[in-house]
């Protein structure tokens, strides 16, 4: 689920501009490690290092953090119980849930998102595993930086209108997102393909689970007649839970894709965590081809392998959607889809948790539309019903 292991230079900050981060974890080793990482960044600082959720709730008024990294399993008051209390005391607090990769913790992380957490991050089983620790380090710092900066922009006097608390904001993004005006240069648009779409491909990352569940809930007519394939940057176990949530939200079959299975209309196929999902021709059928190769765009699963492989199967009959997420995954594959005669829709900046992936596609000039989340599903239903505008 990492977006990059190369380190982009952080913005230059004064002490007053630094993001204040509260680290809450009952492990002294984890607290110390995360605190060292944050302290090494010029644009952020540790405002407190605390052992329990109760400590965080009792001290938040004094600490006034911008971001909290909140462990799930802690004594006295666990993370999921502390979460709503923290948001009640500080409306604009960005909370990133941290947990080990177990099914129980994955379920709790999804519940945390519905309660107002901004994102989640899986902790490595052992900090002695160099690759896992480096990925955790990079992803955590990037999430703090991007999510914290976004919250500050929205809270600034120039940002209009005033945002509701984070818990309400998640529900709005999931159901009826608010499109706050964002000043930006006009983005180049290209017309939608005149070819009838035969498949829907979706790529997403940070903020993706909430966006995906909102989207699939409203595209039932598309799912019933066409296959839907999704790549969400997410680790194993988490994708298993996400598939179950997508099935409930859409009221259609949804599951982690299985290598070699035939792709059929009426189903949602989700790339399993840790493996790329591609498609291929096998006689008259289209089949799933899972790939355990190296990361692409520093992600695994990545969106570009799915987008690129689909061209050989459906040629120009591809409708692709790029939702909220860090990085630029999906942009290159989107370019190839457009060159083959297909179309790309990107989520707009105002309703994206992070406008990295959709922003890269929009700024590359490959999109036929850049839309608020709540307008994407109606547009897809019209396009798959024959509308070409």
Automatic annotation (TrEMBL):
| Subcellular locations according to the entry | Cytoplasm
In this chain the Response regulatory domain maps to 20-138
Q: Which CDD domains match?
A: CheB_Rec, REC_CheB-like
Any one Gene Ontology biological process term?
chemotaxis
Q: Per the record, GO CC terms? A: cytoplasm
Q: Where is the composition biased (Low complexity)?
A: 156-167
Please describe the post-translational modifications of this protein: Phosphorylated by CheA. Phosphorylation of the N-terminal regulatory domain activates the methylesterase activity.
InterPro entries from the UniProt entry = CheB-like, CheB_C, CheY-like_superfamily, Sig_transdc_resp-reg_Me-estase, Sig_transdc_resp-reg_receiver
**Keyword Phosphoprotein (UniProt):** yes
Q: Does the keyword Transferase belong to this entry?
A: no
Similarity comment: family membership: Belongs to the CheB family.
- NCBIfam families reported for this sequence: PRK00742.1
Quote the protein name from its UniProt record: Protein-glutamate methylesterase/protein-glutamine glutaminase
Which lineage ranks, top first, belong to the organism behind this chain? Bacteria, Pseudomonadati, Pseudomonadota, Alphaproteobacteria, Hyphomicrobiales
């Amino acid at each position: 689920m990492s977006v990059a292991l190369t380190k982009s230079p952080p913005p230059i900050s004064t002490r007053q501009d630094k993001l204040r981060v509260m680290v809450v974890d009952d492990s002294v080793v984890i607290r110390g490690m995360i605190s060292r990482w944050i302290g090494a960044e010029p644009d952020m600082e540790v405002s407190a290092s605390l052992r329990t959720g109760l400590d965080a709730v009792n001290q938040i008024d004094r600490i006034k953090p911008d971001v909290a990294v909140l462990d799930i399993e802690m004594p006295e008051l666990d993370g999921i119980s502390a979460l709503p209390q923290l948001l009640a005391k500080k409306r604009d607090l960005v909370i990133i849930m941290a947990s080990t990769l177990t099914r129980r913790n994955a379920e709790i992380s999804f519940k945390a998102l519905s309660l107002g957490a901004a994102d989640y991050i899986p902790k490595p089983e052992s900090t002695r595993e160099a690759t896992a620790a480096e990925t955790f380090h990079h992803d955590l710092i990037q999430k703090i930086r991007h999510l914290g900066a976004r919250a500050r922009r929205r809270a600034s006097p120039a940002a209009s209108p005033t945002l509701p608390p984070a818990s309400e904001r998640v529900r709005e993004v999931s159901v009826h997102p608010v499109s706050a005006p964002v000043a930006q240069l006009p983005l180049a648009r290209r017309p939608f393909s005149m070819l009838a779409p035969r498949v829907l491909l979706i790529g997403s990352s940070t903020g993706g689970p909430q966006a995906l569940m909102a989207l699939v809930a409203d595209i039932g007519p598309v799912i019933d007649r066409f296959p839907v394939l999704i790549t969400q940057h997410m680790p194993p176990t988490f994708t298993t839970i996400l598939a179950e949530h997508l099935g409930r939200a859409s009221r259609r079959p949804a599951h982690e894709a299985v290598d070699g299975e035939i792709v059929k209309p009426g189903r949602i196929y989700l790339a399993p965590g840790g493996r790329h999902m591609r498609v291929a021709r096998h006689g008259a059928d289209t089949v799933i081809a899972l790939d355990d190769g190296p990361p692409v765009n520093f992600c695994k699963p990545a969106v570009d392998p799915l987008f690129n492989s689909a061209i050989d199967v459906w040629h120009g009959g591809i409708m692709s959607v790029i939702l909220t997420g860090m990085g630029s995954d999906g942009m290159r594959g989107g370019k190839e889809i457009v060159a083959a005669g297909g179309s790309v829709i990107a989520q707009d900046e105002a309703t994206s948790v992070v406008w990295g992936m959709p922003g890269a596609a929009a700024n590359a000039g490959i999109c036929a539309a850049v839309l608020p989340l709540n307008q994407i599903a109606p547009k897809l239903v019209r396009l798959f019903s024959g509308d070409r505008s």
